[in-house]
Design goal:
By secondary structure, the protein is an alpha+beta fold. The protein has helices at about 15-25, 70-80, 90-95, 110-115, 130, 135-145, 160-175, 175-190, 235-240, 245, 260-270, 285, 355-370; strands at about 5-10, 30-35, 40-45, 65, 195, 255, 275, 280, 295, 305, 310-315, 315-320, 325-330, 335-340.
């Protein structure tokens, strides 16, 4: 396995083998982690942290994980639910009164977590400067109207979900989502994951690398009937590589970490709310994440989806992936978490890397239980 560093249980050799295969096929760099019962059985990395292939990917290299960030923000919300400070069946406007404008008084907190709120995009032009301006991003959402009746349909809220949940969290706790996550989740667990990256970590960041044949203007896209917003909103590789994006708290897409930190945090969910003596929430509150809220054709993604509370549901597992390839999978029955984090963006049509690594992890799990 040329270029692969880190540690792994011999039963899980298929995981670093697969990462090596991806790097040999042209990916810039990445990391993979597999935790079972809260213990790291795979923690490997390899490749390069830059498009020029001059800076090796190191143990402490971090990169933007795009929408995997949603699972971190959802965890924060579930922690507040567990503490009795947030009611899933309460209107968002109970915590954020201005949000009730334009007929949004019926949007419940659970609707936002499950992508059924009817606010998948902004109705006015927005760009990177708006995403990085909390007051503007949330203020515009408070003013606009719904695209569908809350709870009646599902459509991926790619960026809006994080701003709505983040503002609710701010109103409830008096802290930004990045502050709450750092103090109540990442800090107690010792996890190297950040929503709003402090400047002292900039030297560790691996910038996103566009797909072969594309430049930094390459943008995220989806194929559903509601995928093309009236505003023409689009996020590019270039956006994600700016200092402004790193500093901003973009709770649905702006998190920075590596596979180890993603797997560590989300192992709390795999292990029933408590990890290494740190209790973040009860088993009942952790299980809320995988209670189905919607099943059907997603109006934005253009594909069948099952949504839980903050996570996508996939058979008996749940989790979510980020634009560009990063992925989180949680198997509560096996108490296993698999995370893949990469700086190499790929075209959606050819994206199977995360799933391939998950399947490799299951090869190891079978050996572990045999």
């Amino acid at each position: 396995m040329t270029g692969i560093q880190g540690t792994y249980d011999p039963l899980f050799t298929a995981v670093p083998d697969k990462l090596a295969e991806l790097l040999e096929a042209g990916d810039a760099g990445g990391s993979v982690a597999v935790f079972v019962d809260g213990e790291p059985l795979v923690d490997v990395w390899g490749g390069f942290a830059d498009a020029e292939r001059t800076t090796p990917w190191e143990r402490d290299t971090i990169t933007g994980v795009w929408s995997v960030t949603k699972t971190m923000t959802a965890l924060c919300a579930l922690v507040l639910v567990d503490r009795g400070r947030l009611d899933l069946d309460a209107p968002v406007a109970r915590y954020w009164p201005e949000f009730a404008a334009a007929g949004k008084d019926g949007v419940l907190v659970r609707h936002v977590l499950s992508h059924t709120a009817g606010l998948p995009e902004w109705d006015v032009p927005v760009a990177r400067a708006d995403f990085c301006d909390w007051s503007r991003a949330t203020g515009l959402l408070a003013e606009q109207s719904l695209r569908w009746q809350p709870g009646a349909d599902g459509g991926y809220h790619s960026l809006t979900q994080g701003f709505i949940l983040g503002e609710v969290l701010r109103r409830v706790t008096g802290r930004t989502v990045g502050e709450f996550f750092a103090q109540e989740v990442a800090g107690p667990l010792g996890a190297d994951f950040h929503i709003g990256l402090p400047a002292e970590h900039d030297h560790r960041v691996a910038p996103a690398v566009p797909p072969p044949g594309q430049d930094e203007g390459y943008a995220a896209s989806a194929s559903g009937p509601d995928a093309e917003p009236a505003s023409g909103t689009g996020v590019t590789v270039r956006d994600g590589n700016t200092t402004a994006w790193r500093r901003a708290q973009i709770p649905a897409a702006g998190g920075f970490g590596n596979a180890r930190s993603v797997a560590l945090v989300q192992s709390v969910m795999a292990c029933g709310g408590t990890l290494g003596g740190v209790r973040l929430l009860s088993r009942e509150s952790a299980d809320l994440a995988r209670t189905e809220q919607f099943e059907g054709d997603d109006r934005v993604l253009g594909m069948p989806m099952r949504w839980g509370l903050g996570y996508g549901l996939f058979g008996t597992t749940y989790g979510w992936g980020g634009w560009g390839g990063s992925l989180l999978m949680i198997d509560p029955q096996a108490r296993m978490t698999v995370a893949y984090v990469t700086n190499q963006v790929r075209e959606p049509a050819e994206e199977t890397r995360g799933l391939d690594l998950v399947m490799a992890a299951y090869d190891g799990l079978q050996g572990l239980h045999s």
